[in-house]
Amino acid sequence: MVRSVGMDFGTTNSAVGVVGGDGNVTLARFEHKGGVSDTFRSILYFHPDLRDPKTNRPAPIAGMRAIDQYLDASGEGRLIQSLKSYLADRTFDHTTVINRAHSLVELLGLLIKDLRARAEEQLGPLGPRIVVGRPVHFSNSDGDADDDFALSRLKPAFEAAGFEEILFEYEPVAAAYYYETRLDHDELVLIADFGGGTSDFSVIKVGPSHRHESKARILATDGVGIAGDALDSRILHELVAPALGLGSKYKSMFGTELNVPIWIYERLRRWHHLSFLKTTKNIELIKEIADRSDEPEKIEALWHIVDDDLGYHLYRAVERAKVELSAHEETMFRFEDQPLVIEAPLSRASFERWISAETTQMAACVDRVLASAGVSGSDVDRVFMTGGTSFVPAVRKIFDDRFGAAKIQAGGEMISVATGLALRAQER
Ligand SMILES: Nc1ncnc2c1ncn2[C@@H]1O[C@H](COP(=O)(O)OP(=O)(O)OP(=O)(O)O)[C@@H](O)[C@H]1O
Ligand SMILES: [Mg+2]
Questions:
Q1: pLDDT > 80? residue 272
Q2: Whether pLDDT at 278 is above 80
Q3: What one-character-per-residue DSSP string does 52-95 give?
Q4: Which ligand is nearest to the CA of 82?
Q5: Whether residue 196 has its Cβ less than 6 Å from ligand 1
Q6: Residue at 274 is within a domain
Q7: Measured distance CA(362)–CA(220) in Å, rounded
Q8: Residue 350 CB-half CA count within 13 A
Q9: Closest Cα to atom 8, ligand 1: which residue?
């Protein structure tokens, strides 16, 4: 018998669900250090010494174990995050990891294979068929052609992980299936799924009389490649980069005053590019700037981060501050790797100002999806918000302003998509 299996392969977190004999979805539970979670970190790590004994190729590991190994190895090897965000990026075809080129498809395949193996440890064999979530528009996509290109890379990655029949479903449609399980009446809902890489929306009829209408009940879908990672990137740019010399000056060999090049900080914002800074040429450049800078201690701090590969540590400090601001008006940003300490107070008000371009784009997409569904705010019975970034107060406010707080419901932040995909697998 073919099982109904769904996989939410997320930019930051992934989850796997199967439909049991009773029609309910069981999610894979991932153990880690005595705790257990419904989600698996979408992260891959290559340890410099770990090799596949058969092929002698570097053998990566994924999930939380990847992070543990990376931290144990004190920054040696390569940690790769947010791979899904590069699917639509035609300039990212492969990257060199420990002296060997790996294609994006290969890296994704390795990640999905490990996720599959961990899920099968308790769910048993998943079988050949799987329904996989996809954002409406991928990060870094400029339209349908780029989205198709992204899918043309995601599919072989699932094949490499042993799946044969791979069906894609929009993530915000899957989240609607999850929302619907708790519903005893019909509703017109706006689903809003805010993740790490993308924010996705669907306007869909849910409830007992629509349950079997399949595609016909989806009035519209839309999305933008702006979500949690983009918010982190703002904190990095506004708070961290200035402490690392963004905006500082230095004197050229000929005595002219120059700005420290901004591209250095652009690289910092994209975690996987940080290791690209560590080329001989860039090392020389950063050293030269440090010697001639009007704020040498800041350039030395930058150097410390590049040289010690502290991109992931920096990411964690930034994410921690962002998460704190979902619950508090103020927080203290703190990054420490002796002798370097970056500490600064951060208020929710400043954060909201920094991310206003992002929240404006999200809001415009909400308005667009309503328009293409041909409905107005008052026609919508309920808004269902899900995904990790839906915790951000400024993101919630987009909906409070348009629909009123009473219409908004939130839930299943980390599991709604995987649960819905498994339910969808039952129908297809
Ligand atoms: N309490 C919180 N406040 C703010 N942001 C949060 C909070 N909790 C999680 N996040 C953010 O949510 C994001 C991860 O959410 P989620 O797991 O839904 O994304 P994903 O499914 O992996 O990504 P995508 O759907 O875009 O592929 C991260 O950017 C994380 O920092
Ligand atoms: Mg998601």
A1: no
A2: no
A3: -TTT-SB--EETHHHHHHHHHTTT-SEEE--GGGGTT-TT-SEE
A4: 1
A5: yes
A6: yes
A7: 16
A8: 16
A9: 388
pLDDT at 289: 95
Tell me the ligand closest to 393's alpha carbon: 1
Residue % of the chain over a pLDDT of 90:
81
pLDDT (tens digit, 9 = 90+) per residue, 121-159?
Answer: 999 999 999 999 999 999 999 999 999 999 999 999 999
**Regarding predicted confidence, which is higher, 78 or 386?**
386
Residues with CB under 5 A from ligand 2 (ion): 10, 195
Q: Is the CB of 81 under 6 A from ligand 1?
A: no
Residue 199 CA: which ligand is closest?
A: 1
Query: Running DSSP on this structure, what letter comes out for residue 413?
Result: T
The ligand that comes nearest to the alpha carbon of residue 14 is 1
The domain in which residue 276 lies consists of 229-353
84 lines ligand 1 (CB under 6 A): yes
Which residue's CA is the nearest one to ligand 1's atom 3? 323
Residue 88 clears pLDDT 70, i.e. is over it: yes
**Of all helices (H) and strands (E), which one includes residue 415?**
none
Any domain includes 279: yes
Is residue 153 domain-resident?
Answer: no
Q: How far is the CA of 155 from the centre of ligand 2 (A)?
A: 18
Q: Could you tell me if the CB of 16 is within 6 A of ligand 1?
A: no
Ligand 1 atom at minimal distance to the Cα of residue 319: 31
The SS3 assignment for 357 reads helix
CA 80/CA 173 separation, integer angstroms? 28
Q: Which residues contact 52 (CB under 8 A, 6 or more apart)?
A: 58, 59
Residue with tokens 């990790």: 388
- How close is the Cα of 74 to the center of ligand 2, in Å? 30
Q: Is ligand 1 within 6 A of the CB of residue 225?
A: no
pLDDT higher at 88 or 311: 88
Q: Evaluate whether residue 223 is within a structural domain.
A: no
3-state secondary structure of 35: strand
Centroid of ligand 2 to alpha carbon of 248 (angstroms)? 38
| pTM greater than 0.85 (yes/no) | yes
Residue 271 pLDDT grade (very low, low, confident, very high; cuts 50, 70, 90): low
Query: Which ligand 1 atom minimizes the distance to the CA of 326?
Result: 3
**Looking at ligand 1, which residue's alpha carbon is closest to its atom 17?**
13
Task: Report which ligand 1 atom has the smallest distance to the Cα of 139.
Answer: 26
Beta bridge partners of 62: 44
Count structural domains, the chain: 1
Q: pLDDT tens digit string along 246-261?
A: 999 999 888 899 999 9
Q: CA neighbours within 13 Å on the CB side: how many for 115?
A: 30
